[in-house]
Amino acid sequence: MNSKDRPIGVFDSGVGGLTVVSKLRMLLPHENIIYVGDTKRNPYGSRTPEEILTYTRDILRFMTAHDVKLVAIGCNTATAVAYDTVKNEVPYPLIGMSRGIRTASEISTTKKIAVFATDLTIANHSHRKVAAAMDPQIEIVEQACPALANLVERGILSGEEVMAPLRQYTAPVLASGADTAIFGCTHFPFLQPLFEELCGDTIAFVDPAHEMALQTLEVLKKDGILNTSPEPGYLKLCFTAEAARGGLLASHLIPANEFTTETISFTS
User: Fold this and answer.
1) Would you state the pLDDT for residue 3?
2) Same fold: 8-97+210-263 with 101-207
3) Among the options 75, 145, 199, 238, which is catalytic?
4) Active-site residue among 145, 185, 199, 238?
5) Nearest to residue 124, comparing CAs of 183, 207, 45, 212?
6) Where do the domains of the chain lie?
């Protein structure tokens, strides 16, 4: 296969990384994409760092076997925990999930930026580290949201079951005075209307998937592997469990006739 025609790989602990795929499809409509959602072992946010590293390596072996030309990690937890360890273990560019700090800093007038994320991402303080290196004046308000990724995985995108924890998570952020918030988990943009309902006009929300799509475009151009075919690229969605449910959630973001779904397993 021509190196430019080879697919891009994207992966996540479950369906959250589909928000990244959606942005990539808008920016790079001619690229072929293979997505892996590790729905059998999600959520990653409550796993140990050792487990996250093992899972990441399993998925990257799958991607390598499918001759990808680049992999974008559509998972903040895997990026925070595993990226620095595995980035030199694969023969293709590996892009970690964007933190969204640059976009948020351009929007914020108070330099007080909240991050909604999983327990493990918050414990890693990765957004805080990136912000400190970019601008020491930025204050990061960290808010763990342990229940949300699992609710999204189950397709619960409305109703009191999701609104109750959302009230709990948004209350301290509203009290903090932050004027901008980053979705530090790719599952959370599925719930953006609910976040906005609770926060009103006081907080602007940033989805880092857009920054990541732009970064992917830059790498493809720099390495001379941008797909120049005039035809729309294919999208193959692979899940380690419940592929039908994954496809149903994908259809919230991407027309169902534009992708195929299948169930996969790893041998490790």
Assistant:
1) 82
2) yes
3) 75
4) 185
5) 45
6) 8-97+210-263, 101-207
**What are the C-alpha distances in Å from 64 to residues 24, 74, 90, 212?**
20, 17, 8, 21
Q: Which residue has the tokens 């140990």?
A: 48
User: What pLDDT does residue 121 have?
Assistant: 85
Whether the full predicted model's pTM is greater than 0.85, yes or no, is yes
| CATH tag, 8-97+210-263 | 3.40.50.1860
Quickly tell me which residue has 């969605």 as its tokens.
237
Tens digit of each residue's pLDDT (9 = 90 or more) over 202-242: 999 999 998 899 999 999 999 999 999 999 999 999 999 99
pLDDT at 85 over 80: yes
Reply yes or no on whether 238 is catalytic.
Answer: no
φ, ψ for residue 12, nearest 5 deg: -155, 170
Residue range 101-207, CATH number: 3.40.50.1860
The rounded distance, in Å, linking the Cα atoms of 43 and 58 is: 16
Number of neighbours of residue 220 by Cβ within 10 angstroms: 19
**In which band, very low, low, confident or very high, does the pLDDT at 268 lie, cut at 50, 70 and 90?**
low
75 assigned to active site:
yes
